Amino acid sequence: MGAAVKTPGKAGRSGGRLHAGQPTQRRVLSVLVAGQILGGIGMGATLSLGALLAAELSGSAAWSGMAATMSTLGAAAAAVPLARLAEASGRRVSLSTGALIASLGAATAVGSAVAGLFPLLLAGLVLLGSGSAVSLQARFAAADLAEPQTRGRDLSVVLWSTTIGAVLGPNLFGPGEAVGAALGLPPLTGAFVFSLTAQLAAAAVYLTGLRPDPLLAARRMQGSGNDGAAPLPRKSGLVILRTNPAARYAVAVIALSHAVMVALMSMTPVHLSSHGASISIVGFTISLHIAGMYALSPVFGWLSDRIGRKSVVLLGQGLLLAALIVAGLAAQSTLAVTVSLVLLGLGWSASVVSASALVSEAVAIPERPAIQGISDLGMNAAGALGGASAGLILAAVGYSGLGYSAVLLVAVVIAWTVLQGLRPTAKENTRV
């Protein structure tokens, strides 16, 4: 049974259905999962150490937060260029190029420690952010050849695989230091060597494994089913946002959900520590949160295929709302905060998985990379803004106030979803 593809204007006609074999899609998913695991190891092994290295090279702990900030900015900056590269040359070239840029970032970070240059570290962290952009684009690559009835599941499986690398990466701190010492490198740089190696391996996996390229193959299939019609002109991501309400809605859901998640999550360690929680309790809470973000994503992908994308968006927003209310009502309880963070991760997962499928379904194949790049840019920008704003809100009204403030963003998504209605439009049903 093949992956059914409908071309615009062919709905309801058998001549408009194209097919990609399931073995091809399974191969694509296997390659993407392998690349995600390697990329996750690379990122997980360095982000925490990046904060420590930033504090050491700058001479002040106040600069430690720049590690996450620069990496997020790097991911945002890489989103659109990598999407354009995918549009021009396919996913294989785009994903492997992004992984190579991330490997250059790891090498630059090591060089900054050797030279003792803090600005060079910041540059390396920006380049490392390209690895996060690759991770986000990989979930869209999983949707290129997917059947409409399994698109959410396929996308979510690739997102789920990030869990493996995120769990393995931090456990490489010790071995990384041993490797770094053996190579004569400064402390805190050994894990960056692992990151360099993992990103190079991920680039090789994408470059050699994504054959046929899923995006290019989907385009060829669409072209073969157009009965000689001229291809549709391609639009920029911003033009699509202005003219396509379905795409605008899906991009907004991802951005606002990510902003809510980052705002509360980023301030939780500060809040727990200020109330006497040990570093192990803080770490355990964040680990459970990350598990909530990724571990059940295939479940939400399956649900979005079965009961509808927007229904799962509402489920995700309900979970986010529950997380914020728990945080607001019981901010003094470590257990309640932990429960809140788990609900926060689950809500993020349900919202992002279902809305990512909607992003792919809102436009025709030629326009997918453009709107996907804008979506990833918006997601990273919203996360950076949410994290920056959360600190100010926490200082002004406390952790409970932060939770209640974020309810406004959830309310926007819920209202927008209800106004749109839960039934897919005829236009959405004709997308690949």
TrEMBL record:
Signal peptide: none annotated. This is MFS transporter. It is a multi-pass membrane protein. Residues 1-22 are annotated as: Disordered. Keywords: Membrane, Transmembrane, Transmembrane helix. InterPro entries: MFS, MFS_dom, MFS_trans_sf. Residues 28-423 form the Major facilitator superfamily (MFS) profile domain. It is found in: Cell membrane. PROSITE patterns: MFS. Its main location: membrane. It comes from the Bacteria. The chain crosses the membrane at residues 28-55, 61-83, 95-114, 120-142, 154-173, 185-210, 246-267, 279-300, 312-331, 337-365, 377-397, 403-422. It comes from Arthrobacter gallicola.
